Amino acid sequence: MQPLDESTYYRYLGQTRGLALVLYSSPECGTCRVVEQRLPASAPVDAVLFKVDVQVASALARAFDVFHLPTLFLYLDGHYHARLNCEVTPAALRSAIDHALRQSAEEEP
């Protein structure tokens, strides 16, 4: 997973075509570590994976209203699309992504 911080977030995502998933997490969060391990095997093979360490990029976490960890955001062609609330398993994540893509893009928090 490519790490992102305040200086790289929009630049890297803006250059990403197709699906991108951004995981907001903390190394001190046990659930975050589990999700980080599961995400590569659960995400669609064509999705680019990014990670924001909220201890390093706390301004991003505040800007995106991240109050619970882990939090997962879906981007499409470099643009914010939705916050995903699902288990990180192949079936649940694919279902959540498919559902989000059938909806109009949400406004970025």
Structural features, described:
- The chain has 109 residues and is an alpha/beta fold.
- The chain has a single domain, classed as Glutaredoxin (3-Layer(aba) Sandwich).
- The protein contains four helices and five strands.
- Strands 1-3-2-4-5 form a five-stranded mixed beta sheet.
- The longest helix is centred in the N-terminal third of the chain and has 13 residues.
Mean pLDDT: 95
String of helices and strands: EHEHEHEEH
Give the count of helical stretches.
4
What sort of overall outline do the alpha carbons produce when their principal axes are compared?
globular
Helix content: 25-40%
**CATH fold topology:** Glutaredoxin
Question: Rounded to an integer, what's the Rg over CA atoms?
Answer: 13 Å
Largest sheet, in brief, is: 5 strands, mixed
Q: Spans with pLDDT under 50 lasting ≥5 residues?
A: none
- Strands of the widest sheet, in order across it, are 1-3-2-4-5
Tell me the name of the CATH homologous superfamily: Glutaredoxin
Q: Which structural class matches the secondary elements?
A: alpha/beta
